């Protein structure tokens, strides 16, 4: 790996800022977390998007949330085929090893992944249909949603509906994992869906009883 | 998804805290990020571990870093087989759509994923060898490292060596992606490796010239 | 302009140092900033003083802060009389074109401009009273502060009070600009005042609620 | 100034990073600079643009350069009319009080101020013609250049020519200041012009003998 370069200066200065403040203030806590291991209360699955950090929105202090971030915060269906499944591995670790009490899937507005899926299904992004497009294949998970929401005339509203569908598709796929299902049945785990409007700073959660997203 | 439950109260309280402070302070910035889109300077790949949030260590302001988190912060090799590849999709999005300038892989001490890989390879975790173990199959990516580091007598030192190997394996796998390689050749992208000691709060970066990890 | 001389050698050497390090490390980022334009999050107004560079104190990465520097970091009151107003033009560009979210006025200790104002008002610098003195006329902006702080016996303390007054006078003058006022009312902009002690390296911010400067 | 808000968190964290590194490493130097005053070798006049920090390009350590930044890095002509002239005050302070040895005017590519001047002169930005437009009135300083460069067909080339003209116009205006002229005649001061290509990272200086900009 001769090609690897030292850390950019801007990250180094940021690191020193953290070391002099957050870390200095919480030295003992970091030491304990290192010595005794983590014991997070919740797993949160959200998007890689730089505009929405659950650590900020939910004020994640160190040791509290086990966070998996991928494009659009999607969970694929259970498929124990021996291949690499990063998301499924993260869910398995959170539920069976860490035994988190809550598992939250957090979607968001203006999601580039969902937009890509929409455009691909609408026939406007043929490059995403190619076998070599990892983004396209990953967004296949959400493909059924395009058909479901195609009746919505306004594109922005249709995209938002698909963003919220993405949360529900992930929650449904989570139920296809035997260890998730049994943890829920044993009342050791609960599932939660939410969606964040980046511009307005609003969070809506999914209400299983009414089947709607509701502002908190 | 009738099974989905409202957001836990502790997350709602955190959210309102964020809304009243960070969001209130930066309303205009959030609005612009929503309207104009993200333009992150770097992608950071790190672990889901609740004890190490790059948003904290690198003071990630909204809109700055595109963050993918999975078990052990691993990148699998390039495999355009049409299946779901969440990590590869995230890398493709960051490099080809967002055109980030830096791609940082950040490993850390006391990594549960690396420990699992170690124990599995040592024959002490047979359940991770099963085809149905997503954790085991995901950690197969790091398997060659066990052999490489088996000469280290002290287990803690061996684990740390494997944690750092995980960073290098991910960087090497990144080079197997054609779009990563060509972005580097076009001087549009640089790769960086780093490792964080949770307890001590130290960050080391990988120096490609000497082939060693060096404290910043 | 035959009189213009080539760049001094010491600047050329510095430039090559930057080219070989910061620029080489961030080639792609500079290219993107050039192609896509700047989108700074904040405007910072500070002094020309060579001892206080906000780029250093706030680790200004390229593209982050729009920086105006003049003597004492002063903002004159709104005066759309058709004359040249460099500071007002900078504020107008930042607020109406770039739409920055934060506008920070940063004063500092041992400010030569403030000292000049103090001495002029005390009758000890008659040359600054002349119509041809640009420094004197510029520092007229701060003149009311001398009267206000004249009760402080210790000169050093009096000067510090005037330096902090300079920040407040600038913030007040900023409010006299209609586009600043309306951006604040639309919650698109917030004003911030701060003061840096050069020798001690301390930064204090102005707390609008208590009306005092407080160390960060 | 009840309206003033505390410093945003992202600036506070940056500050702590600086305090723990740059300041900690140079404590004694900062202390001396505070106690003994500044003694900068050069004054640099450049743009407020967030993409070009002379502190970075010329590696400005604390105490070395007296830096004035305004829109497009312009210097208006000498006009001792008793009004506020921030740029003239800065030049007067640098030349008569600090007695800098070099005065550098640094222009740059993709300059929003120059583009505004161009569009205004081309009749495409009527709002900049209004008396209340501080940007428009400030850019009046460069107005003669539009006519001069109007023969260049390619807009990008025309803008670059105007950006370089801006440097020359400023240098010429500097000569209209009696104290600048006499300092040059006494060989205590030299003037320098330069232009930075943001994307390519190239710096060109103005060669008074050939009347051309030349890469360093």
Automatic annotation (TrEMBL), chains A, B, C, D:
<comment type="function">
    <text>Reversible hydration of carbon dioxide.</text>
</comment>
<feature type="binding site">
    <location>
        <position position="47"/>
    </location>
    <ligand>
        <name>Zn(2+)</name>
    </ligand>
</feature>
<dbReference type="Pfam" id="PF00484">
    <property type="entry name" value="Pro_CA"/>
</dbReference>
<comment type="similarity">
    <text>Belongs to the beta-class carbonic anhydrase family.</text>
</comment>
<feature type="binding site">
    <location>
        <position position="49"/>
    </location>
    <ligand>
        <name>Zn(2+)</name>
    </ligand>
</feature>
<protein>
    <recommendedName>
        <fullName>Carbonic anhydrase</fullName>
        <ecNumber>4.2.1.1</ecNumber>
    </recommendedName>
</protein>
<dbReference type="GO" id="GO:0015976">
    <property type="term" value="P:carbon utilization"/>
</dbReference>
<feature type="binding site">
    <location>
        <position position="108"/>
    </location>
    <ligand>
        <name>Zn(2+)</name>
    </ligand>
</feature>
<dbReference type="InterPro" id="IPR015892">
    <property type="entry name" value="Carbonic_anhydrase_CS"/>
</dbReference>
<dbReference type="GO" id="GO:0008270">
    <property type="term" value="F:zinc ion binding"/>
</dbReference>
<dbReference type="InterPro" id="IPR001765">
    <property type="entry name" value="Carbonic_anhydrase"/>
</dbReference>
<feature type="binding site">
    <location>
        <position position="111"/>
    </location>
    <ligand>
        <name>Zn(2+)</name>
    </ligand>
</feature>
<dbReference type="InterPro" id="IPR036874">
    <property type="entry name" value="Carbonic_anhydrase_sf"/>
</dbReference>
<keyword id="KW-0862">Zinc</keyword>
<dbReference type="GO" id="GO:0004089">
    <property type="term" value="F:carbonate dehydratase activity"/>
</dbReference>
<dbReference type="InterPro" id="IPR045066">
    <property type="entry name" value="Beta_CA_cladeB"/>
</dbReference>
<keyword id="KW-0479">Metal-binding</keyword>
<keyword id="KW-0456">Lyase</keyword>
